[in-house]
Amino acid sequence: MEITKFAIPEIIFGRGSLNYAGQCALRLGARKVFLVSDAGIEEAGWVQRLMDILKKEGIEWVYYPGVSSNPRDFQVEQGAEVYRANGADVIIAIGGGSSMDTAKGVAIIASNGGRIRDYEGANKVSRPLPPMVLITTTAGSGSDISQFCIITDVERAVKMSIITRTLVPNISIVDPLILQTKSETLIIQSAIDALAHAIEAYTSTIASPFTGMQSLKAIDLILRYLPKAVETRSMEYLEKLSIASISASMAFSNASLGAEHALAHSLGGHFDMRHGVIHPILLTAVMRFNLDHAETKLADIGRVVLDRNLGSARETALAGIDQLEKFFASFDVSLKLRQEIGEADKQYLEPICKMAVNDACNLTNPRPASWQELLQICEEVW
User: Fold this and answer.
1) b/e map 346-367, b = 16+ CB within 10 Å
2) What percent of the chain has pLDDT over 90?
């Protein structure tokens, strides 16, 4: 077996674990916290709850609410200016992937300078980052666990993948109680995001036994418990989705992803689409594209999806992909690209695919993918 590494943060998991945020910050030397979140989390009351926890521990903070869905480069750079101007130290983010990626981007600029686009790709960050505590409010994005940061370059209209070990936060806090305030749509989108992470990490060319076991566990938990969580909103099932998200995040953070995410980044950057919206459209098409180069691994996934083996690895893989399509169809989600993109915008697919082929995630896809092949996938799912 080749030498491998497996990097994760300290994880504090469980109902009510948010209450430990202040103590975690103090352990990291906090005197003035840089707090990142967004309007939706504010409205749900979680930002004030966190501020009360910090106040109880005697910690000052400066609040930066400059977060949008699919965070922009200028928001990150403005945040870094606020961080420096206020003499902040520990960075705490509470929210979904957008808030946490904004916080990571601020950390990069605050300690390394320059523009956020300077760090696109893998291992471009040279200096240590400020200490980070990330508190997820979804069960899907994985930013609280991973060494990834996704920021939209507004000028190029593309989501940049920034990948470096230093982006793994010091502490991740996962409190499933927070999921109770989430809409059904967000629960579905977040879980499907985690499912896509798990599947692409499993078939990645740099997957390891450590990432593989996490991927398969995440796939199993999401397929078993997402329908029940949507139907009942039971805390027990929401907690299972949180566990699945952590497993998927540990997998993709260390194994990277594939062509589906490369496409999702470029489509999302151009059309300002959430990941959880794109995955039900693209994922199974990319799995079929990869079949000849990852038959055994896709059969492993099929075995988990079907809970049984069929006559051959190929049959099991294909039947598993078919079953995933039925799984997606059981929810109120778009299954075709034309449901999200107008006919007039189809002209942009070619330049989008030319951008996607250079995404870092495409490097670890099991089958090399050209922009023409990515375009063909988009046409198949149109």
Assistant:
1) eeebeebbebbbebbbbbbbbb
2) 89
